[in-house]
């Protein structure tokens, strides 16, 4: 039984020469559709190029975001430093005024004591 199946398969799959009509139709179809240009090996497929551009765009966005954030942090730090400087200068002005008042009070008290003491 196995040999019967094998012989049937061999006879069904034996090589055959194509008919002249088939050969003419095939040649006509090949002539009607010129072969596509072969892709060069150094080019990436379109999908890979799009993926590369998306990745590059995301990386550029990340770098830009980090750069902008650093610049904003520098500006905030500078503003904070300028505000602290302004407060220190204001404190120094107030201290200077208070010291001047204290100096004037001590000076006037010392001159009034000198005037009040009898000369010896």
Give the SSE layout.
Layout lengths: L1 H11 L7 H13 L13 H71 L4
Uncertain regions spanning at least 5 consecutive residues: none
Biggest sheet features: none
Q: Give the N-to-C terminal Cα separation.
A: 155 Å
Which range does the strand content fall in? under 5%
Tally of strands: 0
Strand-and-helix sequence, N→C? Answer: HHH
Rg for CA atoms: 50 Å
Which descriptor suits the 3D outline? Answer: rod-shaped
Return the average pLDDT rounded to an integer: 86
Task: Give a structural overview.
The protein is mostly helical and 120 residues long. It has a domain at 62-115. Helices cover 79% and strands 0% of the residues. It has three helices and no strands. The chain has helices at 2-12, 20-32, 46-116. The chain starts with a helix and ends with a helix. 0% of the residues are buried. The mean pLDDT is 86.
Features:
79% helix, mainly alpha, single chain, 120 residues, 3 helices
What's this, in brief?
By secondary structure, the protein is mainly α. 79% of the residues lie in helices and 0% in strands.
